[in-house]
Amino acid sequence: MDLGTTLAYWAEPSDTPALKPFNLTWLPGNLNREEVVYQYSQSRKMDLPDMLFYYVFGSFKIAVIVQQIYARYKKGYTSDERFAGLIYVVRACAENAQKAIRFKRICNFK
Question: Helix H segments across the chain?
């Protein structure tokens, strides 16, 4: 589950700009999500079946957390303007999960 959530946070160059301010994983020279899974699998000497499920679940988990923060902002419980655009992160998480399901992979959605 933790690896799936990490992969959901792991932005790639083809991902929407809404996901990129939170990390540097999308910059040239970084692994893509599938390469991360491969490296993790090799270092742990274990198979990692069904990472698609865990990636989609991680995307859902992040979307729920971000939606909660965005809702607090919209209701006026916090006034930090950085939270105003979080709805785009929620949408991006949902879009990535949908693409992963449609293409049956966790990266290179085309």
Answer: 2-9, 33-44, 51-74, 86-103
